[in-house]
Structure formats: structure tokens, C-alpha cells
Amino acid sequence: MPKCEPVLLARVGKPDSASLATYQRDGGYEAFKKALKMSPEEIINEVKTSGLRGRGGAGFPTGLKWTFLPKNHAGPIYLAINGDESEPGTFNNRILMEEDPHQILEGIMISCHAIKSNTSYIYLRVEYGKSYRVLKQAIEELYAAGLLGKNILGTGFDLDIYLHRGAAAYICGEETGLIESLEGKRAWPRIKPPFPAIEGLFRKPTIVNNIETMACVTHIINRGADWFKSMGVPPDPNNPRDAGSYGPKLYCLSGHINKPGCYEIPLGVTSRELIEEYGGGVPNGRKVKAVVPGGISMGFMSADELDIPLDFNGPGKAGCLGLGTAAVVVVDDATSMVDVLFNCARFFAHESCGQCTPCREGTAWMQKILWRIRSGQGELRDLDLLTEVAGSMGIIPGTTICGLSDGAGWPVKNAIQKFRPEFEEFIKSGKKVIRHAEELMAAAH
Amino acid sequence: MPTVTVNGTPVTFGENEKLNCVQAAQRAGMEIPHYCWHPELSVVASCRMCLVEVGDVKPDGSVAMQPKLFPGCQTPVKDGMVVVSNSPKVETAQKATLEYLLLNHPLDCPVCDQAGECGLQDYSYEYGRGYSRLDEPKNLKPDKDYIGEQITLFTDRCIMCTRCVRFTREFSGTGELQVINRGSKEEIDIFPGEPCDNKLSGNVVDLCPVGALCSKDFLYQQRVWWLKGKDSACAGCSNNCSIRIDQNNDTVYRVVPRPNPRLQAGGHFMCDDGRFGWKYVHSENRLTQPSGPGGVTDWTAVLTGVRETLVKGAAESPKRVAAIISPWATVEEAYLLCSYLKGLSPDIRIGLGPVRVVGEDDTYPKDPAGRPVEPVRFTIRAEKCPNRRGVEAVLQHFQGTILQGSQLVKAAGAGELDVVYVLGGDPELGYSDDDVAALSRVKTLIVEDLLASPLTRAATYVLAGGSWAEKDGTIVNHQGLAQAIRRAIRGPGDARQDGRILSELAQRRGLYHATTVRQELAGVVPALAALIVGDLGDEGIDLTGPAAPVATLQTAGSSN
User: Fold this and answer.
1) Residues of B with CB under 8 A from a CB of A
2) Based on the structure, what is the number of domains in chain A?
3) Is the domain of A312 the same as that of A392?
4) Which of B350, B439, B348 is nearest to B402 (CA)?
């Protein structure tokens, strides 16, 4: 695949890239001015035509989501921007926020015009201190320049953007968990219906979009839907539910890789291309054992599945949950999958919000079972138990409210299915691999 | 009529009726197990015990089922819908949920108060797998006896259904209880130094489907399988919340609210004043035997003396004979006394005893500053007596007007009365020292009451009556709902329920039987005609309903 000219990352790394002055010098806010001349319906149509799918993980078509808002709604409509980037391995939003906040803010302004919203909240995870400072500075610049506030550019369009810092929980990135947290409550995802587009933040119609999605909106308005659609992968004819994967995507490459980083590539690159052409291969001459396609909640692809394209449809063919955040984590062949899986399970046990029984208890149980296996006390039947527990929870079987537990179960199901011989061998060996530091940590919790 | 099929059984419901799958199944007499759902609380669908399969009947008659499971509590039923709660898929999910709920549960049933009426025990038996596959150590969580004055929390037994949290947020409005921590380390807790001490706090114990929240008052007092329950109504205020009195060996151990759609909040809740306010039943101060002049303590002798006094008084100067009936008396008791005395002489005056009013009606929810919030979901009545309206209806009929007892007390003080019969029942004496002094001036003071008091000490004849837990009868609440109270225990010593005392005083035939008297008075007192059914059922009978003559009772009941 030929390397393409970066668009989303075009200004990243340039001097003073976060300032309004350099952004406007590079043609910034022209798309917003263009959008102000368009009707909201025209913008929505343009975004729909582009085939833009949400970059936050689920890949829901953005333009379609916007049309779910009630027509001619009299009261306020809110746009909540999900900057709670918590999926392990994911850092694309952070780079955008820290290095080029104005393309995000421009996307937010265009989107607010499109959905007739006068208020937007950016929900930011508290760990992102620099993102907070840069965004805050950028928003202040916009108010000073008259690009935010009342009657923007004399068009009668009012818009306020608020920055809100969360208190560090994975679940705050879930659409309705985020809304609850924004309202100042415990981030327990809401039961649906009503969906946020009907009753969301403060019980008003609300759209929740991802940071990268907003950056894409800016460029779609700037360059047109056709430009966006010229990149990517058309719908899979064998999958009637696939809407196609268009546009550039920020792939976060990390793990055992020579050149980790965030790469902008049209959707549909394969893991092999990413690892070999962009990432410079696996260090120390080792081989790839497994690849996480899009954050650990998406599961694992084995070394045999590296040629599957990483578009919205591809990882599913390998039995993974989906593309997720396109955070590709490479695991080399010197790493124990038992350890990798334990680390995943520990993360989800820590991050389960605890609302639904299967997830609250199941995630913690899986962590306990894997701890026992790593302490040399495992039995072969534990693998079936793990698979059963992992399969029993999630929004897909309908046993939980949100998708966190699907994501908690998926790596377990994938790892045990694809690497079962390794797990069996480990269990039979009776080896204890728990380090003293881990034991101390577990005791402290 | 819209119809939903639950496990193959058609269930019809109203056009505008909103039912979820759990309620639809209940209507067909089937149970969809659930923990977090409660009819009076908001839906959170988080325990995942009520998972069901749902589908639709297609025009060609085939059934298309959805591929995933749905929480029955969150899923409204629609016409033509199919709900299945007993398929292998659902049963697998139920087993899984129960296994999860029991993973970290201590299984300390032998020392748990809830054992015997526990949602975990019942559902595990009915739907669970019978064993756990957990090989690892269970989570340990600290007990929290600081959580409230009346309640204590066994944290490790909790299944995180959050019913208690939602109750304090939505009903009491006080919001003391909350969830702390995350995932399997979650616990119910309070903000430090802000215990759950609102007047509705006892309800969280009932709401708790497991043994996590326990009543400090009831803790370790009795295994629930020894308790014998009797449906009754609370006498603590004019709400008359429907309750069940749980007793063993003539000792009341607790009262719990009993659902009743005719009462506020569906009868699911009651206040702590009522829940813990019945302790006078077992007071050491209870009257345990009758007494009369010359140290007589024999019922026959005392009643004969009382009867002779009354007959003589009525014959000689009936205007100098009076009676005061407490609003704690049942309708039957008021009727027995009125019909007896008015039978002796229509000139005998009968007044209504002290109606105790404490403060103002206390409404919930409240805001954090304690101010009431609309809409009101629960009210604790200021009128602290159970049957003013019932007694008034009887008095109105027999006398044409409601004479206040205070006027008779005044008359006694002025020396205008020779014989006064005080029918009490209020655990707190409603008579001041001056009142007692006034009543002491009559020649013969007859007091029928529960507790020894300055009034009983001043009396010529004392009749040891029964508390509300010891008698059968009818009480009418502030809104005109007549409910039956039932004799759950025997009184202490030789104390008798008042209906029996009055029945024997009036020399009626046979044993006192509340239903018989109730039907008799229904034929006599038009305002109470609806009581003719005799058996008032679980929900009671609305006397203000279209079947009852409204006017008379409404004049009788003035302030509410």
C-alpha cells in the first residue's frame, strides 16, 4: 500500500502547531466559515455521503447518528465529545489534542452547526494534563478571536465549548457512562432506550462523538466527501451489516515494535504492512506471536491472521470483536500469552464499573482464575471455565447493559481459542510465574 | 385487548397499561426471578436475574425470537409479544447470574437473619446450579454497623442490587446510602458521619433481598421460620399502613409492611415510627388484670359491678352518665359501647377521646436540607391515632353529632357527672393532670385501657384491655379505607381484648366475634354499610367508594 499524504497529522510536530495563528495561517477555520454558509442538512448529508464512521471504537456512521436527533426540537441539544481515551494502547486522540487542537475544535463547531447545538462539552480523562492545557488555551483563543460565544462571525450562531475533566475510569468512555459522569454522577452506563440522541445529557437530546471523528469532519467539509471516500475499503458484499470503511485513520502502533507511534493510513491496512512497512518490524529479530487489532478489548489476532485488513469489517473475520480504536499492540514470540491475558483480565476487573452482575463478578473471577493458573495451581478445566465466563457476559448475549464486558471477555475467548496449546502446556508444567512485586501489589489491593 | 404470551400462557392487559415482562408474568401467576427491580423504584436492570427471551408473532403465525436476552424488568410488553423465561438459554443465564452473585457471598446462612426469607436462597434452590466453581479466596468486606441507628450492613452479603440506594434517593430523598469503589470491590456505604437515620430508613431492610441490610432491632432475635405472621394494619398514625405482625409465643418480634394497592406507595413501605413504635405492647406497665372496689380482680365480679353502676346511673339520672371513646378503639368496640349505653338510655352522652396530633404531616421525599419536595411519595400523618374516622362515624350515627370528650371532662370537673366510662387504647395518655383531676371528681370512674396511668389509678373500676396486636376489629384511615386488624398475640396476664370486654358487659350472646359485630353494625350505621361483607380482605374496603354512602362519613371526618 502506498504511503499517503497525512491530513489529520499534517500539522503535528510543526512549530507552534497548537496556536490559532499558525492554524489559521495553514487555512484553519475556512471549513467552519464554509459550513456556516451551508444549511445543517447539507452538512449532515455531506458527512453521510463521506461514509465517515465513528472513530471511538464502535464505528457507527456519524451522519446517521446525527439524524437520530428529534426534528425541530425546541430545547437545547448537546454535543458531547469523548476525549476519555482509555483503551489500552490508544493514543491517537491525545496526539491530536496536544498537537493540533484547533482541527478538533473546528470539527466540533461544524458539527454543532449541523446538529443545531449551541453547547458542546469535551469530556477529557484527567490523566491528559497537557491535552487539557492545550485545549483550554485553544478555546480561550477562539473566544478572544470571536469564533466562539454569541453571534459568531455575525451569523447569529452561538456556541460555547466547555472542557470537563473526568476522574479516571475506563467506563467514562462509554457513551452513557460519559453522560452520567458529565452530570456529576457515578459513571454507570444507562439502560437504553432512551438513546442519548433522544434523551441524553441533562435529559436533553445529545450526540456523543469521538475526538478523531471531529477532526475528520473538519477535513470532510474542507475537502469534500468524495475526497474522504476515495480512501478506504468499500462494504463487504458478504456482510450486509458492513457500511464500508472510508477515510484516513490514525493507527496507534505499540508493543514489541521497532518504531512505535501513531500513523495516519487509509483504512484497510493490514497488520503485516503496519508492522513491517511502518513499524520497522519486531525488535531483536523475534517474530510476531499475536496482534491486538484495536485495543485489548477487541481480542487477539494470531500470526496467521496478519494479512487481514484492519478496517471496520476485517478483525471480525479473525474472530475479533472489531476494529475498536485501531490501537495495534504487537506481542512477540518471547512473551507468554498467559501473562498477556492475565494483564488484560486484571485491567478489566479493575475497570468494570460494577453495575451488572455478570461483568462485576465475571471480570474479577477471570482475573482470579488466571492468577491461580500463573501461580502453578491451574487445571486444564480452568480453560473451559474461563471461556464459559467470558462468553456469558456482554451486551451481545444481552447479559449486561454496556459493551465493557464484551471487551473483557473477548481477549479471553480469543487467546484460549487461538493459543490453547500454550495455555495447556503452561498449566501442565505447574510453573509459578508470579513475581514478588505482583504479590505485594495484589495484597495491597 | 392486547395480549402477550408468557411461557405459552396468554396474558391480557389494558390498552394504556404499562407492564414489564416481570409484571406480565406475575399476572399469569408465574415468577420471573428478579432482585434489583421493585415496583416502586426506578428501573436499573443491573442484577440481570430477570433475563428473558422475547419475540414477536409474525403475520403468518410464526414466532421470530430475538437472538439476545433482554432484562424482563426493562422490557415493556406489547401486543403480540412472546416472552419466554424457561428456555434452556434463559435457564443457563439464570444459573450463571446466580453463580456470580454467590461467588463472593459468604454463605453464612446459619448466622444470617435473612435465612428462610432470602432471595439468594430461594432463587438458588429454584434456578441455581447448586454448587460453585470458585476455587479462589472470596473477597472480604467489612461489616458496617455505623450505617444507621436502626440498620446495620453486612457488606459481604450484598449483591449490589442498589434498591436501598435508590430508595434513599427517590423515596426518602435523603440520599444517605451510596455505592463506593468499583467492580467486585464495590460496597454500599454512607458519607462519613452522615448515617442513614431518616424516618423511612427501616424500609431498606425490607427492600434488601438478601441479608446485607438488617434491622438492629430484630437482629438475632428470632429465626424467621419460627415466626407466625398475621396480616394487620399499623395503628401508629392515621395512615393505617397495611402490615404483617410477626410473633412467636405471644411475643411480637417485628412488623413489616405488606403491599396494598389502596395505600400510598402501594403499601410497600412504612415509617420507622410505626415499624418500631409498637413496643408498648410488651411494656411492663401493661394492665394485666381488672380491678374494682375492695380489691376485686375477677372479671365477672368487676364487669358485674360496672354494669350495675351503669344501669343504676342510666335509670336514675342518665344525663349524669357519660362515656369517652378513644380514636384508638375499633369500629366494633365503639359500636358495642354506644349501642349498649344508648340502649340503657338515649340521654347518656358519649364523646370522642383525645385525638393526638403531633406536629404536621411529614412528607417525603425531602431535599438535603430537609425540606419537602414535590411530588410527595410518602406522608407520615400528624394525627397519631388509627381510627378517628371510624369512631366518629359510629358516634355520628348514635348521637347525631360528634361530642368532644374534652367537653365531658369539663362537665366532670364541674361536678355535672356521676359515672364516666373511658374507653382508651392510646399508649400515650391523652389526658393532662387537670383532666385526670376533673375526671376524679365523678362518683364512679370506669377506665378500660392498656397501660397503668394516673387515670387508671384514679379509677373505681379498671378494665385491662388489649393492645392493637391483641384484638380483632376494623379501623378506618384518614382517606376512609376500612381495614381489619387481627389478633396476633394474647395479651399479658388476664388482659382481654376490648371487644370481648364490651361484649360481656353488654351481655351479648356467645363469644366476641369481630366479623359478626362488623356485619351487625353495617346494618345499623349507614356510613359503615360497606362493612356488611364481613371479611375485609387483604386490601380493606374503601368507605368513600361509590358503593358506600359518602355524605355521612365525610361530615364525620372533618380535617383530613
Assistant:
1) 43-49, 51, 68-71, 74, 92-93, 96-97, 100-101, 103-104, 133-137, 139, 159-160, 179, 181-186
2) 3
3) no
4) B350
